[in-house]
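Standup notes, protein team

Yesterday: finished cleaning the Roseateles paludis set.
Today: EAL domain-containing protein structure.
Blockers: none.

Input for EAL domain-containing protein:
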Amino acid sequence: AAKQRQCGSLIYHAQLDVGSQESLSLLSELRQAIAAGELRLYLQPKVDLRARKIVGAEALVRWQHPTRGLVPPMQFIPFAEQTGFVRQLTAWVLAQTAAFSRQALDAGLSLRLSVNLSTRDLLDQDLPAKIEALLTPLGVAPQTLCLEITESAIMDDPERALSTLEHLSAQGFKLSIDDFGTGYSSLAYLKRLPVDELKIDKSFVLAMERDLDDARIVRSTVELAHNLGLSVVAEGVETARAWNLLAALGCNEGQGYFLAKPMPADQFLDWAKAWAP
Ligand code: C2E
Ligand code: CA
Ligand code: CA
Ligand code: CA
């Protein structure tokens, strides 16, 4: 019980010394979590703002901890990135998402599913081949999978990230820049990156209704994306007003609590059937 309590408090600290006793026990707890089936795939719908139809979903991981309940990703992803364990986590999310994609296809739904990649994943030159090996046996086309990458993950090692992204794109996977506007300015890279979509960070979308500057940033981002031939998604759509404002600005897709919170995969399947075109 003492060990449980000790581990328990640790998850809440993002910065642990790698190699420390605390770090090692959390790492082994996370390893066990995968083996014991404690991770959960949650999906949050992405909707076409004009047509008001579901187009896909973002995969978001949660940890169903035996004593602490549902642990949100921000309490273990940063740690997983620090230690490199995130690669195993990403592999788990990709496998679950691929299996769900097959299930959705069998139910007559054609959805684009998005998976978050971390800095570490972008440095893995074998990633494109690994993803293809997951999808091919299931008969899931690469075009139905979108990979979300943050600006800061790219800027960590831009040349290597660019090489991985070019491979992924050449294999037909869709690419999205996540949390756009919050990372380092990467307009020079944006031009070179083979991306298909920009995702406006929720901080701008949430503030847009009361702050004119945020509204202007959202408007400029939509214009920038469209001028570059990219599709735009707004995350953090919490109200009908935000939905309408974004639709008026020409934003293509929306994601947020106004539509639905992230939900377990089986629940999402029912949701998607009700919203399907
Ligand atoms: P993110 O990729 O920016 O994901 C969007 C986050 O915004 C999610 O938080 C989602 O639940 C939340 N969100 C969605 N709609 C709304 C809204 O209307 N209002 C507000 N206030 N929030 C909204 P979540 O699920 O807690 O995930 C947090 C972060 O953890 C993600 O941010 C992502 O960076 C990371 N993450 C989650 N799952 C994975 C994963 O499988 N792999 C990796 N590498 N990172 C993940
Ligand atoms: Ca994301
Ligand atoms: Ca985001
Ligand atoms: Ca974020």
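Follow-up from PR in the comments: The two ends are 51 Å apart (CA to CA).
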